[in-house]
Amino acid sequence: MKLKLTLLFVIFLSANAFGQRPSDRTQPLNRILFIYNASNSMNGSWESGKKNLIAKKLISETLDSLKGNPNVELALRVYGHQYDYRQGQVCDDSKLEVPFAKYNVDKIKKKLNTIQAKGTTPIAKSLEMAENDFPPCADCRNIIILITDGIEECDGDPCAVSRFLQSRGIVLKPFVIGIGLDPNFKKTFECIGNFFDASDEKTFKNVLGIVISQALNSTSAQVNLLDVDQRPNETNVNMTFYDTYTKKIIYNFIHALNSKGLPDTLKLEPLYTYGIQVHTIPPVFKDSITITPGIHNIIGIPAAQGFLNIKINGLVKNNFDVIIRKKGEMKTLHVQETNTTEKYLVGKYDLEVLCHPRMIIEDVEVLQSHTTTIDIPSPGIITILRSTHGRTDIYLEKDNGLEWVYQLAEKSKSENLYLQPGNYRVIHKPKSAVSSSFTTEERVTIKSGSSAIIRF
């Protein structure tokens, strides 16, 4: 007989859970589907008797704790019980024996008592079929508890099915509990979900109760956005919670402090392993966050921030865009307008001001809760009037040479342009000219707040 194991596989399905805050919804209906393994190996011995009898007894005792709960519906699917393991139909042997209903604990217990262990272990097939066991529901927590003493025996891939269901947002990360499990099989089930090894009957019963408790209750947590002194003082920034396994977005919360100045409490589903992206500039990521049910979880994320104020002295009709990059890097983090203040993580940045000519300002340091101010000289304005179309370029005199700044539109006869203070040359050649000797040049000095006119 093949070496087998018992596992408990719990999955939540929640049609509208993603992107919503649990505290903002009405209490969902909890629907629990038990998937029971009745393969031939369940006739084997465990501690006090046959595994089939012990497992059914422990499940029945757990079901009693759900009696009379108006917010719970139960159902039962069984596999491996219709055909002998030596027959040819065993890999399709999975059936919904008791559909979902309220107050049907006794009905499920009665059905369990009639189940005889006969067949094999089509886990993947049963999980695929279980998706359709849940009637449509706008706001339900759908839970699957899969009980089996064996690994997949029908060439199916339970891990692939789990990934598929999770990627579609149908299920949450499963729980897996193995009874008498060979340690070598542990990794086999880690790809399905959270694994628990119940090596004896008492542990199996305890774990079953724990999983039921987790399935019926959400868990509280708070996110501490830490400043440079490791105090949870940062706030008012969006946080995206996603499932680390599938990368699907689960929640978005804009961080807040309560009336006592502490991070407020969030209600989270405990079955996910979360990743969190804090949308600071630049963003902060924290991955593989597990939530412990039954306690208040505190998640600390370094997010020390300060302010960057970029201003232009004097009156300017149009603001300039300023590209913000991490010091020494070329990737654009943000584009900030002049005469605005934005919040950034503590650190050093390089700025590129999209004025004429471009200005590069390096090693700008943002400090905790401090406003760093960058003063950009007020530009002047140049007006260029042309009697004929042609090519006209503006150059800045710099380091005994010329730096190209701007080319006027060829068909434009007049154009106004803001220029930073400096000495410039404007070089023009009419479009109709057939000789370079028709090139003309004008020099002009631009001062802050001043204006100049060039005519060709």
CATH superfamily grouping of the largest domain: von Willebrand factor, type A domain
Shape summary: elongated
Strand content: 35-45%
Q: Which sequence of strands runs across the widest sheet?
A: 1-5-2-3-4
Q: Which CATH class of the largest domain applies here?
A: Alpha Beta
Q: Quick one: biggest sheet? A: 5 strands, mixed
What is the CA-atom radius of gyration, in angstroms?
34 Å
Describe the protein's topology.
Blueprint: E1 7-13, E2 29-37, H1 51-64, E3 72-79, E4 94-102, H2 105-114, H3 123-130, E5 140-148, H4 158-167, E6 175-179, H5 186-190, E7 194-198, H6 201-216, E8 219-226, E9 238-243, E10 249-254, E11 266-268, E12 273-278, E13 284-290, E14 297-302, E15 305-312, E16 321-326, E17 332-337, E18 340-345, E19 347-353, E20 359-366, E21 371-376, E22 380-385, E23 390-398, E24 401-407, E25 414-419, E26 422-430, E27 440-446, E28 451-455
Helix pairs in contact: 1-2, 1-6, 3-4
